[in-house]
Design a protein that fits this description.
The chain is α+β, with helices and mostly antiparallel strands and 589 residues long. The protein has 17 helices and 24 strands. The longest helix has 23 residues. It is globular.
């Protein structure tokens, strides 16, 4: 027999009754039932109930056990009585009567329990992550992550993509987030950067003729950590040649739909991802990451307030033709108590308030309804298809200033009234992002997002259109309010790239210095190409039903960017600093 086990702790069942088994694992918990000890033994695969009584030669050793001791047991597999069968366990029909027991590893008193799922402080959990990872929920999350990544690889390979690896030490990029820099010992005063994404490398692979690339790519961004963002993350990085935007959609959509259907655990998954233009998403949902499980769609109702008796809105409309009033419907929210709570919430968010109308007995109620009169109130009700028991909230001003708040109010209404369908994964594509935006701080036109995107209309658009009206072949995948992926059809023509960068205020010298490698590659025959990069961590977070990336990452940092388990970041020795020609210049306390 193997020195440690003949079976794992999930394998034994009624077919093994009468056999001898050897198991190894952790003592999950111990129960003393009148001198008979019941030991739940746990390994990576599952749990088996073991029993030892005073007649067993192993009883003396068993009495000394504590939670999380690692032990090896030999025993006889016996069927449980009908009234003690545990249908929640794969091994719940049997138990092992221990004849021999060996302690393989003792455990000190635990700083946090492994049995059950108590809510412990983050610092305790991360400092003892090796214990935290033994807990059932977190252990299952990490296992699911592995299965999801394996499924991604299989699905990509099946449709003709090949996995290629790109460098981890690379050049700093001036676009996007802040880089993590790595000092060079061989080149004093110079630095490598950890890749924010393999963007330029994957484009160069297309230029090199590899056609269909994917990689489970590690990425690094020196941004403040939060629930859905971390210093280090992984993405399913994809690029393909000789494609248009629709080709990318038709290729990637089945991969993600199939992936979610595989692990959805009964939840519905969007069959055909709707394509929503960026401007429409902002207008209807107040966000380019809309949660479509929430059925609320905002509408403009400016005309109903122009010249009305509600002067707070009417005066704004009269004084500025760009002012708009947006309505946020609230089905089933038609009570003064709910409307007042929403108004108080808006004030807590730094807003002056949140106007409302609620409907009862066939008419609108509330201060706004009184001020605008029954005809305008009825017109609003008809436009929004509201009925008795419903309400509607209003925001007014310049949309650029209130859109984000309106989106937050939509989310608040949907969640508070329990309108959000929790039993689905609701996907969409956000398309037609603006190529450029106005940089108010520097008073100039700048890239809105990805400078390597192809402008819709190509060179003609860059030469003849107002830059702020040009759209890019750029797209995001959104699921349940999370951006899972950003991508684009790339600008593969150096003349169009030079023109786009010129519009954004980059002269030829800066372009050559910062993007010279990419520019030179494009000058030697670049195919039309495009791709995207769904985030592995966020996908797993959604599939696990978690709200925080740390719950689906084996060894995460805390919100201050510290690794409490191994103590990073740490001080470098004087010798290390000398070799790197670095002298710390610390801020004054």
């Amino acid at each position: 027999m193997h020195p440690y086990r003949s079976h794992t702790c999930v394998e034994l069942n009624a077919s093994h009754v009468g056999q001898t088994a050897r198991l190894s694992g952790w003592v999950h918990r111990i129960r003393d039932h009148g001198g008979v000890l019941f030991i739940d033994l746990r390994d990576h695969y599952g749990l088996t109930q073991c029993v030892v009584d005073p007649d067993s030669p192993a009883f003396a050793a068993a009495e000394k056990l504590r939670a999380e001791f690692v032990i090896r047991i030999d025993g006889d597999v016996k069927k449980r009585s009908d009234d003690t069968i545990n249908t929640n366990l794969p091994t719940g029909e049997v138990e092992v009567f221990i004849r021999d027991l060996e302690v393989l590893g003792e455990s000190k008193e635990l700083p946090l329990p492994v049995f059950a799922e108590p809510d412990y402080p983050e610092e305790t959990r991360l400092r003892h992550r090796f214990l935290d990872l033994r807990r059932e929920r977190l252990h299952a999350n990490i296992v699911l992550r592995s299965k999801v990544i394996a499924s991604m690889r299989r699905r990509m390979t099946e449709i003709g993509f090949m996995e290629y690896n790109t460098p981890i030490l690379t050049a700093s990029s001036p676009e996007g987030a802040r880089d993590f820099l790595v000092p060079s010992r061989l080149h004093p005063g110079k630095f490598y950067a950890l890749p924010q994404a393999p963007q330029q490398f994957k484009q160069m692979l297309m230029i090199s003729g590899f056609d269909r690339y994917f990689q489970i790519a590690p990425c690094f961004r020196d941004e403040d950590p939060r629930q859905d963002r971390a210093f280090e993350f992984q993405q399913l990085d994809i690029e393909m040649s000789f494609v248009e935007q629709e080709d990318v959609f038709q290729t990637v959509e089945p991969v993600l739909r199939g992936l979610f259907e595989e692990f959805a655990n009964g939840k519905r998954v969007t069959k055909d991802f709707p394509r929503i233009p960026y401007a429409e998403a902002m207008r209807k949902y107040g966000s380019d990451k809309p949660d479509l499980r929430n059925p609320i769609e905002m509408e403009e109702v400016t005309e109903h307030f122009a010249g009305s008796g509600f002067k707070v809105f009417a005066n704004q409309i009269a004084n500025d033709p760009n002012v708009q009033v947006w309505a946020i419907p609230a089905p089933t929210g038609g009570s003064r108590a709910f409307c007042d709570r929403m108004n108080s919430w808006a004030q807590q968010e730094g807003q002056p308030g949140l106007g409302y109308i609620f409907f009862r007995e066939g008419e609108g109620a509330g201060p706004i309804a009184k001020n605008i009169g029954p005809e305008r109130t009825e017109a609003i009700r008809l436009q929004l298809d509201l009925k008795d028991g419903d309400a509607v909230f209003f925001v007014a001003g310049l949309p650029a200033k209130f859109t984000a708040f309106a989106g937050q109010a939509r989310t608040r209404v949907g969640e508070t009234l329990e309108l959000v369908d929790q039993e689905q994964y609701s996907f969409c594509w956000i398309v037609d992002f603006p190529m450029f935006e106005w940089n108010e701080d520097e008073k100039r036109v700048d890239f809105s997002h990805n400078p390597f995107s192809m402008p819709q209309g190509g060179m003609e658009a860059l030469e003849s259109q107002d830059p702020l009206t040009i759209h890019a072949y750029q797209y995001d995948i959104v699921c349940n309010g999370y951006e899972l992926s950003s991508g684009a059809i790339r600008n593969h023509r150096p003349d169009i790239m030079r023109k786009a960068f010129k519009i954004a205020g980059y002269d030829e010298g800066v372009l050559e210095e910062q993007f010279g490698g990419m520019l030179r590659a494009l000058e030697y025959g670049a195919p039309p190409h495009g791709g995207l990069a769904p985030g592995v961590d966020r996908i797993v977070m959604l599939l696990c039903g978690e709200q925080n990336l740390r719950e689906v990452t084996a060894f995460p940092m805390n919100q201050q960017g510290e690794d409490l388990l191994l103590g990073a970041p740490s001080d470098a020795s004087a010798r290390q600093l000398r070799e790197l020609h670095i002298r710390p210049n610390l801020p004054k306390a």
